[in-house]
Amino acid sequence: MDGSSLIYSTYVPTESFPLDVDSAGNAVVAGATSDPNFPVGAGAFQPEYGGGKSDVYLAKFSPSGQLEASTYLGGPQEDFVSSIAFGPNGSVVVAGPSSLCSTCNRT
Prior knowledge:
Strand order of the largest sheet: 1-2-3-4
Helix content: under 10%
Radius of gyration: 14 Å
Number of strands: 6
Mean pLDDT: 83
Low-confidence stretches: none
Strand content: 25-35%
């Protein structure tokens, strides 16, 4: 890919911040949302909005632009994301401030 053509585009109706691409070409984007109807898939790490002003969301798109997986991350107050990175086993590491995150440090 040399940047001369558009492969796909999508719209995520929230604030989106960090974006990274894994070794398989999947785009992972994170941001903050206050939408209790964000498109969260089956088997999500946190399937429901935690409440408060905002939760973090994490979404994975295939190389063709299909939403593969998404989840909320957050608790009953205000949560944000400032960065994401891939771990050595393909896991996604999310970092950012949280007022009170009920899912933080959960494995």
